[in-house]
Design goal:
Layout: H1 10-40, H2 43-64, H3 67-77, H4 84-117, H5 121-130, H6 132-149, H7 153-177, H8 186-203, H9 213-239, H10 243-251, H11 254-290, H12 294-322, H13 334-353, H14 361-364, H15 368-420, E1 423-424, E2 431-432
Helix pairs in contact: 1-2, 1-7, 1-11, 2-4, 2-5, 2-6, 2-9, 2-10, 2-11, 3-4, 3-6, 3-9, 3-11, 4-5, 4-6, 4-9, 5-8, 6-8, 7-8, 9-15, 10-15, 11-12, 11-13, 12-13, 13-15
Length: 433
């Protein structure tokens, strides 16, 4: 947790360091992965893969149904109760398995229709291969939420790294075997299968707890209630930086989506810079908000925001310096076309970067419904601006719309903290009332 004056404790800094190490590996792997697809399979294949990825991420949030958020919050809240925590974990994992299995089956059945909507048969074929991974994703996401709630961030970081390395390894296998690009969709299923066993061994959700069966049923209801109210936030937060790709898939061809996706890959990576801090901060916010010490919360928030923004600016600067030098390695026009949309996206995200580590603060305060309302407003703004600008401006319209949406999201989060947490002036000022 934080120290009384709102400083960042040694464990926070250590956890952040481990997770930034994992993030660096994930980012490098992601870059290699996307570069490999573009270079080996071509720009159209990159567009196909990113459309499969966008569908998978959105469906994955339905599969986990917000149960991971419930598990993370209540494990952190009851960190001193060794008998209750296994009950929280066991009921959350069981519930995720049931819901995740049902969603996986539905997505598999709808894969052909998804391909038709995207006007791309390979997209539908790839979604069908990714669908079984949704069941495992739901279970794994809850197990990761439990690790997060227990602040076991070293294990959390290692599992994150194993997931992306598994995806890259499968992509290399696809290339070696000469399989078509849509086979890349199976990478998600393979990766979730790889990390499932170590996650189960780390969390051990089967451990006996002190609660009777009636109490266990009560926790199932609690997870369902919290998850149902948190679902829109999880669903929309994970798809927030992919709204533009999803909407471009309807209005432009695979090659244009591929050009935009090349820039979006870097933006998603930059977005993860403050998200790493958010992951470490979430269980700490549970305690800080519950203590109702607004001055301490405000000091903590400002320190986190300043650190996040500084790290983002440095990382974004490196990306923009390196980006033009990638041109010789890819198809003519890919890097130059992507560079045109990368700048506005980075500027917009820069405004939001300071706030991202705290943008789940309402969830940690036990307000999943209001958290979901906030994210619904943000994504409605994002989708509305993209719908307004993409038909006439294409991928540049998507960049302008998404950049504006990032900036507005900072304002809505600040207003929510002011209104619902009593922090006069919001997170940026943070005076309690």
């Amino acid at each position: 947790m934080s120290t009384p004056d709102g400083a960042l404790d040694r464990k926070f800094l250590g956890d952040a360091a481990w997770n930034y190490g994992a993030f660096a590996m994930m980012a490098a792997t992601g870059v290699i992965f996307n570069f490999f697809i573009a270079a080996h399979f071509g720009t159209a294949a990159l567009g196909i893969f990113n459309q499969i990825y966008a569908v998978y991420i959105v469906a994955a949030q339905l599969a986990v149904f917000g149960v991971h958020d419930s598990a993370q919050k209540y494990v952190a809240q009851h960190d001193g109760d060794a008998a209750l925590r296994p009950v929280i974990a066991r009921t959350a994992v069981g519930l995720a398995a049931v819901i995740g299995g049902a969603i996986a089956l539905c997505v598999w059945a709808a894969s052909g229709a998804i391909g038709a909507l995207a006007a791309s048969e390979p997209v539908g074929q790839g979604v069908a291969l990714a669908a079984p991974g949704l069941f495992l994703f739901a279970v794994n996401k809850v197990l990761m939420g439990i690790l997060n709630g227990e602040r076991r961030m070293k294990a959390f970081a290692l599992i994150q790294g194993a997931r992306v390395l598994s995806i890259l390894a499968f992509a290399l296998l696809v290339a070696l075997e000469g399989w078509p690009a849509h086979m890349l969709g199976a990478a998600f299923t393979v990766a979730e299968a790889v990390i499932a066993a170590p996650l189960l061994a780390l969390v051990k959700p089967w451990r006996a707890g002190g609660a009777a069966s009636g109490a266990a049923r009560a926790w199932v209801r609690q997870h369902l209630d919290f998850g149902a109210r948190a679902l829109p936030n999880g669903f929309l937060a994970e798809s927030y930086v992919r709204v533009d790709v999803l909407m471009l898939a309807v209005f432009v061809d695979d090659a244009a989506v591929g050009v935009y996706s090349f820039a979006a890959m870097f933006i998603e990576g930059l977005y993860q810079v403050p998200v790493v801090v958010r992951t470490v901060v979430n269980p700490m916010l549970v305690k800080l908000v519950a203590a109702a010490d607004k001055p301490a919360l405000a000091r903590f928030a400002r320190r986190v925001m300043a650190a996040s923004l500084a790290i983002f600016v440095v990382t974004a600067g490196i990306v923009h310096v390196v980006f033009p030098y990638l041109a010789p390695y890819f198809d003519d026009g890919l890097v130059s076309g992507a560079r045109a949309v990368l700048l506005p996206l980075t500027v917009g995200l820069g405004v939001y970067a300071a706030f991202i580590p705290l943008d789940f603060i309402l969830m940690q305060a036990g307000m999943p419904g209001r958290q979901s309302l906030l994210m619904t407003v943000n994504i409605a703004i994002n989708a509305g601006l993209n719908l307004l600008l993409i038909p006439s401006l294409g991928i540049m319209g998507a960049a302008m719309a998404t950049a504006a949406a990032f900036g507005l999201s900072a304002l809505t989060l600040n207003a929510a903290a002011w209104r619902w947490l009593g922090m006069r002036g919001g997170l940026a000022v943070g005076a309690g009332r």
